[in-house]
Amino acid sequence: MRFLRPVLVAATLALALFSRDTRAQILFGTAARAENAIERFEFAAAHRELDNANLDDPELRFFAGKLAVYESECDRAIELLSSLGDSSEVRSVLAIAKGCARVMASSITETDEAAGVWIRFQDEHDRPLKGMIVETVLRAREVLTHDLEATWPRPTRVLVVRDQLSLAAVTGLPYESAQKTGTVAVAKWARVAMLSPRANVHGFVWRDTLAHELTHLAISRSTADQAPLWLQEGIAKTEETRWREKGPFDDRPSSDDIARDGIRKKMDLPLDHLGPSLAMLPNADIARVAYAEVTSFVQFLEREKPGILPKLLAALSDGKGFPEALAEITGRPFAELDKKWRAELAAGKSAATTAPTPPKADGREKARLAELLIARGHGQAALTELEKVQFPKDEPWIRSLHGEALHLVGKDVEAAERVGEPDGLRGPYAPWWSIRARVLPTGPLRDGAFVEALSNDPYDGPAACEGGGDPALCAAAKQFPVLP
Hints:
The chain is mainly α. The chain has helices spanning 7-14, 20-28, 30-39, 43-50, 58-70, 74-81, 88-103, 130-148, 164-171, 175-181, 206-223, 229-239, 255-264, 284-304, 308-317, 322-330, 334-347, 361-375, 379-386, 396-408, 412-419, 430-439, 444-456, 461-466, 471-479; strands at residues 108-112, 117-121, 156-161, 185-188, 191-195. It has three domains: 7-102, Serine Threonine Protein Phosphatase 5, Tetratricopeptide repeat; 108-347, Neutral Protease Domain 2 (Neutral Protease, domain 2); 361-479, Tetratricopeptide repeat domain (Serine Threonine Protein Phosphatase 5, Tetratricopeptide repeat). Strands 1-2-3-5-4 form a five-stranded mixed β-sheet, with helices on both faces.
């Protein structure tokens, strides 16, 4: 939510509201400079403007409260904002301050001064994630500096929360929207707010998610939040895996394939009509197509004009609108580029994306029984049940169950064969990576499988405890095991 944007509009409107001295201050000094500094995450500069300012002035008091929110000083933000009027701008920022104060009331803060990373955990049991979070932030910042010419004021702030209700409270994203689209992280207010991986059974690709949201922070800072949100999402999806080595499930299926399929099914939306946030689209299927569209278009722009992204962000930072900036850099209007992109998509051939064959009800029941038997150490009985199950060969759940059962009865060579290779699966699944790591012989493949398992679910007990990681993470995984 912006407060009377742009700055000159804010200043002009303020003329009717404040005294002559205050009007002069707003037009030519403190308020304009403070707002610009806040939007670019230059908090030291914002403090220079506001720390000695007259906070009896409601405009300056609002910006001081907003700065406190951006610095995650939630109680101070409430103190500053509560005495202001009932405008929509004040209400929205005050709601964030109150949500932040409520959710993080008994939180734990961890800092790494050398890395310039600040992490606040709503649940102290997530503290073992600190090392992996810091590593991800460092690597992602380096790549984003290279790709987008981003600069990074320190510290980089990350909030880890328990559930989507908490995520909604600290970001302002409506809870219903988070539920509909399956949102697990939001970059706003100069920080990344992210669900704990324990919030989902078997986690999610949380480290890529963190890199995705860091891209949003880089773009917001570079452009004072002037980049269209659909463009931000396209760049963020493009950058979210570049912080690490390429993985077996990257771009599978490709964004081009998903976008093409969505267009053919008439599930697509015009790029510049995707609304204020992809997290607020009607449902997860439409959001999936929208993410694919914007990613496909950004990758198209990179092919058409290598090195376009930092130039585009710089032009937006200079105050140009997106169509003007794009035309200036490429020499072609947005409508023409959009048309060419769609034509190339239509002419392309999609990879085979046949829907998985749903298992019969009795097959799922037998697999579930096998899962329960494995949890209680009955490997041979689980194998007996699994032999009765007919599932698609690319189903990672069944592959992992076969592997776990064979591992229990000491047949790791057979288990490795049954688990198979990642290119034979339809998608990533933490338990599959975990059992693959445990049945492979010592070496790079085994080590890589442990990394993948923890990057999907750091609380997978066997991976956390056998992967040579943090003993505190192993203890946390044992304390809160995922029950089968």
